[in-house]
Amino acid sequence: MTHKFNQYSELLNCSLSRAVDYLESLPERPIDQKISSESLRELIGGKLPQQSGDPKQVLNELAENIEKGLIASGGPRYFGYAIGGTFPVSLAADWLVSAWDQNVPYYVSSPATSVAEETAAEWMLELLGLPKTAGVGFTSGAQEAIYTALITARNSLLKKAGWDVAKKGLYEAPRIHVVVSDQIHSTIKRALWMIGLGESDIKTIPTDSNLRILPQYLPEILAECDGPTLVCAQAGCIDSGAFDPFEEIAACVQAHPNAWLHVDGAIGLWSAASQSQKHLLKGIEKADSWDTDGHKWFNMPYDSGMVIVRDAALLAEAMGGNSMGAYLTDAIAKPDRNAVNFGIAASRRARGVPVYAAIKALGRQGIEEHLDHCCAMAMKMADRLREVDGITILNDVVSNRFSAQFGKGGDEFRNRLTERVVHQLQQDGFCYPSTSGYKGLKTMLFSVLNCHTSEEDIDATAEKIIETYHIELEKCQQHDVAALCE
Ligand SMILES: Cc1ncc(COP(=O)(O)O)c(C=O)c1O
Q1: Ligand 1 mean position to 187 CA, how many Å?
Q2: 336 Cα–ligand 1 center, Å
Q3: How far is it, in rounded angstroms, from Cα 366 to Cα 388?
Q4: Could you tell me the sign of the dihedral formed by the alpha carbons of 77, 81, 87, 90, in that order?
Q5: Which atom of ligand 1 is nearest to the CA of 146?
Q6: Cα(16)–Cα(74) distance, rounded to whole angstroms?
Q7: If you take atom 8 of ligand 1, which residue's CA is the nearest one?
Q8: Each residue of 289-341: pLDDT tens digit?
Q9: Which among 89, 234, 289, 431 could disulfide-bond with 149, CB atoms 3.0 to 4.6 Å apart, if both were Cys?
């Protein structure tokens, strides 16, 4: 037989050397390469290739060209949005996952990765202090995890109301009331559209100045919900890192005859693994479902998310994994973990393996150190900026992020100055915060989610931010407010 398995070696070695060069360049690389989309199309696009090419040349050219337009978001001074770095061990494990090329929906299609995912799931529940019997699915990210959790919530709420979604669909189903924080992330709304609940009569719970749910409003709101009711809270608000008051929220939800509490913990659920932070999440274990991300604070390579449902049987029922075709009957009958019962994907890669590797390599202590370090770095930056006349930190910094505004004077002036400072920082390429909104104000969002961010990075970034603020302020003082608003 003439197999060609020896073809992989040269190509993978080429990838290895390219990847290592890229990763090691991250601390010095300008974060945004500032190349136009036209130039990228010239480099990367073109006509459909008709003839086969030399794979090594293709790989080298691909790396060369694509690296010209990458954002160095894995670097130590990337502070925008909610983007994490990568633990080296997880990236390395992820490469093995690609090489093994296992398909994991059924135990029989990949016994060993099924056991690795099962173990990673058990370890996660223990780390996060969530019920040991909960079901954990490895998803592409928090969006898919939210979607999965809310499908389970919808079906379970309707089942309790005497309606079987799998049999009857949603035609003439009882109405489900939806109650969410006024700061709920857009991916919850997106999931609500996708699962047929829409958003037109979502009830919102007001939040305080830290963007945290004001629980005193909840009993009154829930009293108006006279049927199945879905309540969504969050652990780690994008703009403030705030945690909703889960204890009070869970008590109200449990007092309702048919309500389900989902917690979006895409950013902050990992705080439950830190001794010094877990008090912020008191009561979170009383929810019915949770989502989180691996690729944000837990520093998995993309893509990695997790859905967790208290009652694993409800998750499995909603996923319908036991009703596949005849060719899968024997596979499903095995008593071991079939991933298809824990998520919407059928075929997928073994995403839980990099999670397993990280937990095994870092251990509880290493994970806690990583989480605490990120929070300490966010707090250090906020403290440094707060000392500067004219810089305001808008929230109490309790986690890995905060929102800030630059300048004094009216809202419009501060909004424009803030926008200019952030855009200038992004343009310079040394550090990368992003813009956001905070109760109607334009802000700088500063987020620390990368295991590589050091104290020196924070010090150097603080200098850069303060210098940029003074330059932009000076410019606007020379020109007047109208010029700033141009
Ligand atoms: C609070 C929150 N929830 C959900 C999501 C969605 O996560 P993902 O993009 O990983 O699907 C995000 C993304 O930033 C988020 O900040």
Answers
A1: 7
A2: 31
A3: 34
A4: negative
A5: 4
A6: 17
A7: 142
A8: 999 999 999 999 999 999 999 999 999 999 987 777 777 777 777 778 999 99
A9: 289
Whether residue 442 has pLDDT greater than 90: yes
Q: What is the mean pLDDT of residues 448-454?
A: 98
pLDDT digits 0-9 by tens, 238-266? 999 999 999 999 999 999 999 999 999 99
Q: Shortest CA distance to 135 belongs to which of 286, 313, 270?
A: 313
- Which protein residue has the closest C-alpha to ligand 1 atom 14? 82
Cα–Cα–Cα angle for 195, 137, 23, nearest 5°?
Answer: 110
Ligand 1 centroid–CA 12 distance in Å is 32
Name residue 442's amino acid.
K
Distance 266 CA to ligand 1 centre (A): 5
User: 176: closest CA among 149, 157, 195, 152?
Assistant: 157
* Any atom of ligand 1 within 6 Å of the Cβ of 141: yes
Q: Is 305 in the pocket of ligand 1 (CB under 6 A)?
A: yes
150-170 residue pLDDT tens:
999 999 999 999 999 999 999
Q: What's the pTM value of the predicted model, to 2 decimals? A: 0.96
3-state secondary structure of 138: strand
Structure tokens at 44: 């990367």
